[in-house]
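Below: protein 1.
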Amino acid sequence: MKSRNVVRLFFSTLLLGGVSTLIASFFVKSDIYVENFNPIDWFEILGLFVFFIGMGLVFSLVSQMGFFAYLTVNQLALSVFRKFWPTVQIVIIAFALFDLVYFRYRSVDDGTITPFLLTAIALFVYSWVVAGIKAKETHKRAFIPALFFMVVITSIEWVPALRTQNGDYAWLLIVPLIVCNTYQLLILHRLTEKK
């Protein structure tokens, strides 16, 4: 990949992270916005915009680190596991989904397993769709690595927000992670293809 494309990928992903977090904050933190819109406090609203865009930029960096770490690990695993690497990826995907449900449910004192189950199912279905698009645009062998990246790497990147007691930050983090990871996965082959 040319250095120009690396810089383009970096800044476009950064922009997506900032914008998506700002948009998500309107829904997740709507009470803060309502508080500052009645009466209108432009200084506080500007501060909120800067805060959430800055937060999105940081989340975008987490996504980009995860993406490039995955590219490195994938190449290493291909040389170690060879033809068994797709099978190993499927096992790790299953474990990551199990982890999203069971271990998170065990860490909560009261409540039902349903929200954790729905979260894992939603992530899996979305990842399946994105992996299908990637495989259709490139090669059918790209399906399992794309699914692995979208499920496992996104789950790993999401862990810091999942460990907090405030669920708002978990939702504020997953939106830019999903957006940035999807964008990076689907744009990579366009940036690396030879003209």
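Below: protein 2.
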Amino acid sequence: MEDILAYCPDCWEMVTRDGRNILHLSVEFKKQEAFKFIMKKSWVGNLINQKDAEGNAPLHVYAATPNFHGYDLENHPQAEKNAMSKKNMTPLDVIMCSDVYSARQDALIEELKAKGAICQNSLQLQKKVDLENEVVPIDIRKVADTHMIVASLITTVAFAAGFTIPGGHGGNDGPKEGLAVLSRKAALEHSL
């Protein structure tokens, strides 16, 4: 990284097509040495609150990345502890809504709260999750009923097709009553 910055000093400003900078990426991919290197640079203040396409600052990514220790990030004086993503979530919301548990997350929750971070939407998110859990089983039952009806229809059609003689039955009276229309064809005579 030192060599790259020596040849292209402004490359730290580059972002991915998702708007993530090198600080986002070092956290996301758990590159501890790169993270430490970046945090020691004077220009880190320009990166620390830069948001990606989803509105996530590096602290949001850090909150969502279990087992990555970047203690300097939440302690950095310029890091906005209550930055909002496009989903209206603070870094603390990200941790609280995560289904992955780690001791690091417990420590991060305490550190963020001590630094004035708030949990903006946890109650609203919990209500949304509860509502989704109520709606999903009803939809699944409707889909299951539809599949049962379709399966019954397919079985009925397949069963009827097994007993239907090609060409159908003649509707004439007399000695040929009820005989297959194509019964005089060679292929049908051998199959009967």
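The two ends are 82 Å apart (CA to CA).
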